[in-house]
Amino acid sequence: MDITSFIANMPKAELHLHIEGTLEPDMMMSLADRNKIALPYASVDEIRAAYNFTSLQDFLDLYYQGMAVLQTPFDFYDLTNAYLARCFAQNVTHVEIFFDPQGHTARGLTFEAALDGITSALDETERSLGITSKLIMCFLRHLSEEDAFETLEAALPHKDRIFGVGLDSSEKDHPPPKFMRVFKAARDAGFTAVAHAGEEGSAANVADAIDLLEISRIDHGNAVLNDAILTDRVSAAQIPLTMCPLSNLKLCVVDDLSQHPVRLALQAGLLATINSDDPAYFGGYISENFLAVQHALNLSFEEICQLGRNAYLGSFMDAGQKATAVAAFDAFAAENTP
Ligand code: ADE
Ligand code: ZN
């Protein structure tokens, strides 16, 4: 099997995916129509043409605007089902997805409108296609600590359906210390913590996310490699990094994919993984991310296998599910690696 077919066919886990970032332009148009929402675009082509970002903030402005078409639990259900259909087509067997409740409650929706739609689709798809999942709700870091506490409060009755808390949105100007207390409260309530760090921000943000927010996984973490001491520490602790190559390219975190740090991360012993972040905005789902970075860095079969296996190792599956998934991945690799 050549490496392109290998990537397409290997079992995958996706650990960094914002469900609102899977809103494809055609679905944006049809939901706008269904919900009588005016869009500043006349066509799918116009929407795509607007996806020319120079920074994270540039993208976030359109991302928050786009999610306004999501109005009812059915919209979230359709959105999640469309993503899961892509997962099935790309042999993704396990997903850990983010949602941004404050992006919806700020528009007058209930916390449950998003949660119910997303979890119905996740539950149904586990039964019909066997794709397993965990749901992580992110606090928007450009909003206040108080707003994050209100969101945590709204989540407490639904702890059975929400596995973890994350931190996303504008990294610049909103470093981890702002959310120390709400993360402690969330961890005390039993949520697992993760955070975006070291995407546009510095290695110090990653260290603070580890020390102050006590996260179990780093989302992005590109900047870890800028600090040798932190690299050794993250490697020794095997804290997973959920890297997102096409996102980094589209948001100008790297100028060119040939400069992406994922190979350096593997060489430094980091538990790096490949993910799609906001695939509808960045031009590709998980397989396209693997293919693009393989091509740009000429990654070997061994490196691709390591990345694919790391996703299962870095997931929040329980020990038994993880052992089964890693064994299935290793069996696939043994049968199909030249
Ligand atoms: N929200 C959605 N995608 C994001 C990203 N890549 N970084 C920060 N916040 C986000
Ligand atoms: Zn992200």
The CATH architecture would be Alpha-Beta Barrel
Number of helical elements: 17
- Regarding CATH, which class? Alpha Beta
Tell me which ligands are bound.
adenine, zinc ion
User: Could you give the order of the helices and strands?
Assistant: HEHHHHEHHEHEHEHEHEHHEHHHH
Strand content: 5-15%
Assembly level: single chain
Summarize the amount of helix as a percent range: 40-55%
CATH superfamily: Metal-dependent hydrolases
Number of strands: 8
Distance between the termini: 7 Å
The CATH topology is TIM Barrel
Q: Quick one: biggest sheet? A: 8 strands, parallel
Poorly predicted regions: none
The neighbouring-strand order within the major sheet is: 1-2-3-4-5-6-7-8
Can you describe this structure in just a few lines?
Helix content is 52%, strand content 13%. The protein is built from 17 helices and eight strands.
Describe the protein's topology:
Blueprint: H1 3-9, E1 12-18, H2 25-34, H3 44-50, H4 56-66, H5 73-89, E2 92-99, H6 101-105, H7 111-129, E3 132-140, H8 145-155, E4 164-168, H9 180-188, E5 192-197, H10 203-212, E6 217-220, H11 228-237, E7 241-243, H12 245-250, H13 262-267, E8 272-274, H14 279-282, H15 286-297, H16 301-313, H17 319-336
Parallel strand pairs: 1-2, 2-3, 3-4, 4-5, 5-6, 6-7, 7-8
Helix pairs in contact: 5-7, 8-9, 16-17
The structure holds adenine and zinc ion.
Residues 18, 21, 56, 63, 168-169, 196, 199, 247, 277-278 line the site of adenine.
Question: Could you walk me through the main structural features you see in this protein, from its secondary elements to its overall organization?
Answer:
The structure is a single chain. With 338 residues, the protein is of the alpha/beta class. Helix content is 52%, strand content 13%. It has 17 helices and eight strands. It has helices at 3-9, 25-34, 44-50, 56-66, 73-89, 101-105, 111-129, 145-155, 180-188, 203-212, 228-237, 245-250, 262-267, 279-282, 286-297, 301-313, 319-336, and strands at 12-18, 92-99, 132-140, 164-168, 192-197, 217-220, 241-243, 272-274. It has an eight-stranded parallel sheet with strand order 1-2-3-4-5-6-7-8. α11 links the parallel β6 (217-220) and β7 (241-243). α5 (73-89) runs parallel beside α7 and α16 (301-313) runs antiparallel to α17. The longest helix is centred in the middle third of the chain and has 19 residues, at 111-129. The protein is globular, with a radius of gyration of 19 Å. The chain starts with a helix and ends with a helix. The mean pLDDT is 98. Residues 16, 18, 168, 196, 219, 277 line the site of zinc ion (ZN).
